[in-house]
Amino acid sequence: MSRELTTSKCPRIKAWWFAALLLVIYDLVSTALSYYLALVIRFETFHPGGFSGYASGLLVTLKYFPPLCILAYVAFKLYNSIWKFASYHELTRCIAGVFLTIPLHILLISCCYGRMPLSYYVFGVILQCGFLLFSRFVYRLLFLELSNWQKRERHGKKNLNGMLIGAGSAGQMILRDITTSKLTEINIQCIIDDDFDKWGRTLDGIPIVGGRDDILKNVQRYNIDRIFLAIPTAPHEEQREIINICQETGCEIKTLPGIYQLVNGEVNVSQLRKVDVADLLGREQIQVDLESIMGYVKDKVVLVTGGGGSIGSELCRQIANHKPKQLIIFDIYENNAYDIQQELRRQHPDLNLVVLIGSVRDSHRVEQLFDRYHPEMVFHAAAHKHVPLMEDSPCEAIKNNVLGTYKVAFAALTHGCRRFLLISTDKAVNPTNIMGASKRLCEMVIQTMDKIAHTGDISVLPHIDSHTGAQKVHFTLPPNTPRTEFVAVRFGNVLGSNGSVIPLFKKQIAEGGPVTVTHPDIIRYFMTIPEAVSLVLQSATYAHGGEIFVLDMGEPMKIDSLARNLIKLAGFKPDVDIKIQYTGLRPGEKLYEEKLMSEEGLKKTENKLIHIAQPIEIDTQLFLQHLSELIEVSATNSDAIRDVVLRAVPTYHPEKHGA
Q1: How far apart are CA 406 and CA 361, in angstroms?
Q2: Residue 340: helix, strand or coil by DSSP?
Q3: At which of 275, 292, 319 does a domain end?
Q4: 479 & 553 share domain
Q5: Which of 557, 556, 623 is nearest to 595 (CA)?
Q6: DSSP string covering 408-450
Q7: Are 542 and 477 in contact (CB under 8 A)?
Q8: Virtual CA dihedral for 66, 69, 70, 76, nearest 10 degrees?
Q9: CB-neighbour burial class of residue 465 (10 A; exposed 0-12, middle 13-18, buried 19+)
Q10: Fewer CB atoms inside 10 Å of the end CB: C or N, the chain?
Q11: 198 lies in a domain?
Q12: Are 612 and 549 in contact (CB under 8 A)?
């Protein structure tokens, strides 16, 4: 006989059925015992003969009442629960089940016997409820003690002492999960909460010892190794203050991702993460209602160049969520393009997705793309971004960033693309390195293209061929060609992006140091990838052509402080456990970044954190002359490229390296 046939005819017996059967037998016996003991208490004798004639009534109870109780308990599903995780919900069902049996008992006795003493019912119900709760919750108590014993046996003296910050709903769930989990070796010793009314009380037996001002002394008092933050609803400013205090303890810190975990019921130990540097931003993270603004991509053909990079891939994810007619990803690096392709295919199986490998420097490839797919919106994220590498290869920065931007923008203009958004950087402001200068040139390309889009006369533009260099354009735009709106979006360093300093610091910390910082006073503006993408997407709704959008990124952060905070968050002491080594500013690097040039002014938008910089007027004819020079000089990989960039970008000051 086959295994499958045997299984189908003989269903597997579940282990919990035996536990339920034992509970049924226990409840039958304990219910009968409860009311026998009720008369014992009432008449102070164990012999039924001393019950003053109520023995017959007790016999009716013993014979018929326990089965009625079993039926009531079944109705309240008291034999289906997993009692090692019993909680308030199971407690209420137990009490409700007992109270349902009271009128049944009174009706039974009244019909079959007569009147019984009032104390008989009172004592009986109390004992019945006590026996019922004991059988259920003693198992949970034994399970908890067994878990703690197993943890002690498994980890020996390696158990860590923990402090929980937050005695609210999230804290209670985290505490319970830590207590019951077999995967943790944490013993929570104390709880911190700023609510004065909770001080001196306990949560699941753990004392609440004070507020944030008491963190340091209780870390020493209880010899704390790890701190858990369970305050997902607290304002960002308040969370940052508490994190700053916790950093001074040298303990490892973990926190909940956010309030949405509470809504989804996902709060547990597995949801805890190490405090990230994003938690230490000097401002609230930008929240943009993308649902209300992303209608402009619906049913549109959208192209994202550099779509496999950090910013480009996040752009693709957000755009894919809002039903474009077609999403085209264009990238030179096949591994990144493959990764985002597979991710989007899994998450959006109905998305019309096209992934193309190619370079923005290849004019034939770019023209082929626009001829075939006719994108209506372009997000241009393809660029070389590493400052030191571009200092060593300046011609490559010009070829890829400037000429690549020009070729894609030229194709967008001549093919009637509706909107073109350039991803720029704050390094384009008064640049001291070739990368920043190249991005400023990209902004100037956008400004020039926007002017030409308004006039419709493209005869002044050179057509840059990949192989033969610049050629004169021999046609004009047809009268019915849609006008392209060209805009740029400028923001600072992106946390967690490819090439960001954060992964480097984390890797150095994991290796035991040293952590390398170029200069103790160097500062940078920071933002998260979702913030950057939100800015790019929302800026498109404000675009009329020619604008440079700038994010209010709050106060800049010192890289030295950032490195020290990361070391503390990892549970180490800077310059004691992990050394910080100052290596000196790299070529083209300056101490601070700026968001605006002195000639630019800011104009507000509906989003108070997004501003529009009034672009500096440029001489189109002169700029195109400089562009032609850049084409010729970069093609020969000449060292004279910096001199040409100097003439083209008046704000470029390479002599101020490190200034």
Answers
A1: 9
A2: helix
A3: 275
A4: yes
A5: 556
A6: HHHHHHHTT-SEEEEEEEGGGSS-SSHHHHHHHHHHHHHHHHH
A7: no
A8: -170
A9: middle
A10: N
A11: yes
A12: yes
Do 250 and 305 share a domain, yes or no?
no
Q: What is the 3-state secondary structure (H, E, C) of 120-165?
A: HHHHHHHHHHHHHHHHHHHHHHHHHHHHHHHHHHHHHHHCEEEEEE
Q: What is the DSSP letter of 599?
A: T
The pLDDT value recorded for residue 547 is: 77
- Asked which of 112, 147, 182 is the last residue of a domain, the reply is 147
Structure tokens at 4: 């499958």
Q: Is residue 206 part of a domain?
A: yes
CA dihedral 624, 626, 632, 637 (to 10 degrees): -140
Beta carbons of 293 and 537 less than 8 angstroms apart: yes
- Indicate the pLDDT class of residue 611, thresholds 50, 70 and 90: confident
pLDDT at res. 341:
95
CA distance 585 to 591: 8
What's the whole-model pTM score?
0.59
| C-alpha–C-alpha distance, residues 244 and 241, integer Å | 5
- Give the bridge partners for 495, in sequence order: 528
Query: What's the CA gap between 400 and 603, in Å, rounded?
Result: 31
Residue where the block lists tokens 């019945």: 128
Q: Are residues 320 and 454 in the same domain?
A: yes
Quickly list DSSP for 38-89: HHHHHHT-SSGGGSTT-HHHHHHHHHHHHHHHHHHHHHTTTTSS-GGG--HH
CA distance 179 to 186: 8
Domain count, the chain: 3
Confidence of residue 180 (pLDDT cuts 50, 70, 90): low
pLDDT by residue (tens digit) across 7-31?
444 555 666 677 778 888 888 898 8
Q: Are residues 226 and 267 in the same domain?
A: yes
The mean per-residue pLDDT over the stretch 587-602 comes to 59
Which two structure tokens, joined as six digits, stand for 431?
Answer: 């640049």
Residue 506, pLDDT > 50, answer yes
Q: Is residue 642 part of a domain?
A: no
Distance, in Å, from the CA atom of 630 to the CA atom of 634, rounded to the nearest integer, reads: 6
Phi, psi of 650 (to 5 degrees): -60, -25
Write out the DSSP string of 487-507.
EEEEE-EEET-TT-HHHHHHH
**What is the CATH classification number for the domain harbouring 229?**
3.40.50.720
The whole-angstrom separation of Cα 287 and Cα 408 is 31
What's the mean pLDDT in 421-429?
88
Q: Phi/psi of residue 236, each to 5°?
A: -60, -40
- Domain interval for residue 426: 300-497+527-559+586-618
pLDDT for 627-639, tens place per residue? 989 998 998 999 8
Could you identify the residue written with the tokens 């952060």? 557
Specify if 405 maps to a domain: yes
| Concatenated DSSP letters of 229-261 | E--TTS-HHHHHHHHHHHHTTT-EEEE---HHH
590 & 457 share domain: yes
- The residue ranges of DSSP E strands in 306-434, in sequence order, are 326-331, 353-357, 377-380, 419-425
Separation between Cα atoms, residue 237 and residue 231, nearest integer Å: 12
- The mean per-residue pLDDT over the stretch 88-116 comes to 83
Tens-digit pLDDT profile for residues 237-246: 787 788 888 8
Q: Return the ∠ at Cα 375 (arms to 370 and 381), rounded to 5°.
A: 90
| Angstrom distance (rounded) from CA 237 to CA 608 | 18
